[in-house]
Specification:
This protein has 380 residues and is an all-alpha fold. It has helices spanning 2-25, 36-52, 58-66, 68-94, 108-119, 132-177, 183-190, 196-219, 235-252, 255-278, 293-306, 313-323, 327-337, and strands at residues 99-100, 128-129.
């Protein structure tokens, strides 16, 4: 019996260490279908969403969802630590519970207590190992506990650095495409420039952002559950706006803007597909068309106004082809993460978050004269 418990303890220890290695240290996505960490997030997210549905206020629901990402990470760390403590306690018990106690006889509770104080490097000294094997197990656990805590401490700044880098461009998108961001608003606010150079440079920056997000979120999928500072912003909405704008420019644009849009579209679509594979999200058809035919003409005019290009039936077919390559994946992620997809920005005027603050409601001195189409020159 003790031999069997010892073998189970070793298996539990190595399985936990392997999960920790794949989740924290390994800088690439894991293709193995079954993972304890993935199962942990599938179960806890369903439970969290179940409680979320009981809340009546939309603002309270969004606030409740924002706690899941950081809290699940702490629960995962605690689960790994508990598994290692139990594994070493099983090894102590399999070795005969050879420990010195002040009174009574050693039991599995004693082994568990010794394992916990050793793993967290407390060094209380009221329970000490007596036999050679017990001392070896204690020393090994002490070193492992010290290394585990060091890895966890170093992991958090790396992950939050990736989160901050992601949110930086999302915040910058607020003034360029509104909140929530839309492709139509992005093109509308670039139309007054009368040059595709600005939009081309901006799409190039988003190409880099999409590549960085793909690398960080494939290595640390828990970042997908981290929500933005504002309720009407999300990394998924930003991805949607960039993909929509790139698809429009590819379909109706020309020259350098079209070439850059193709590059941005390629890396963005690559990132979305890979994230769906990591999170085991299947593409889901949209319940309603995000761009109905009655809005197509307006969205095409926005493209020709912001960059060189022309409208044609071939462009319409190309746009539909491009949309089939990413909209179902985005909808699947939207349903999984409870992050709504933005519209195409037709017929609505987006309001930036900075205008929703107290100081932003003051009339800006940089506001220009009204444009002939009823809009404004610029977006301030």
């Amino acid at each position: 019996m003790r031999v069997l418990v010892g073998i189970l303890g070793l298996l539990l220890m190595f399985a936990t260490l392997w999960e920790t290695f794949e989740s924290i240290i390994l800088p690439r996505r894991v293709t193995r279908r079954f993972r304890v960490t993935r199962l942990f997030y599938q179960v806890t997210w369903k439970v969290w969403v179940g409680f979320n549905r009981l809340l009546h206020s939309s603002k309270l629901r969004e606030s409740h969802l924002s706690y899941y990402g950081p809290l699940s990470l702490l629960m995962l760390f605690a689960g790994w630590a508990l598994a290692l403590v139990v594994a070493f306690a099983m090894l102590h018990w399999a070795a005969g519970s050879s420990v010195n106690v002040s009174e009574g006889t050693a039991t599995f509770r004693t082994d568990l207590y010794l394992s916990g104080t050793t793993f967290f490097t407390l060094g209380l000294g009221d329970v000490t190992p007596r036999a050679t094997l017990a001392r070896v197990i204690t020393v090994a656990e002490g070193g492992m506990g010290f290394g585990y805590l060091a890895i966890v401490i170093s992991y958090l700044p790396t992950m939050y650095g990736a989160f901050s880098q992601r949110e930086l461009n999302i915040s910058l998108l607020d003034a360029r495409a509104g909140s929530p961001p839309t492709a139509g608003e992005l093109l509308r606010r670039h139309a007054h420039v009368r040059s595709s150079d600005v939009l081309t440079r901006y799409l190039r920056e988003w190409e880099i952002w999409c590549a960085q997000l793909m690398e960080s979120h494939l290595s640390y999928p828990v970042l997908c559950y981290f929500r933005s500072q504002h309720d009407n912003q999300s990394w998924l909405a930003a991805f949607t706006a960039v993909l929509d704008a790139s698809a429009l420019i590819i379909a109706y644009g020309a020259d350098e803007a079209k070439w850059q849009a193709q590059l941005t579209f390629a890396i963005s679509r690559h990132a979305i597909v890979d994230l769906c594979e990591v999170l085991l999200v299947r593409p889901v058809p949209l319940a309603a068309d995000r761009l109905p035919p009655k809005d197509l003409n307006e969205i095409r005019n926005l493209v020709t106004g912001s960059c060189t290009g022309k409208c044609s039936e071939a462009g319409d077919l190309k746009l539909n082809e491009l949309r089939t390559m990413y909209e179902r994946q985005l909808n699947g992620l939207s349903l999984r993460l409870l992050m709504p997809l933005p519209s195409w920005g037709v017929g609505t005027k987006a309001l930036e978050n900075w205008k929703r603050t107290a100081w932003g409601r003051i009339t800006s001195e940089s506001a220009g004269p009204r444009a002939p189409d009823g809009g404004e020159h610029g977006h301030f």
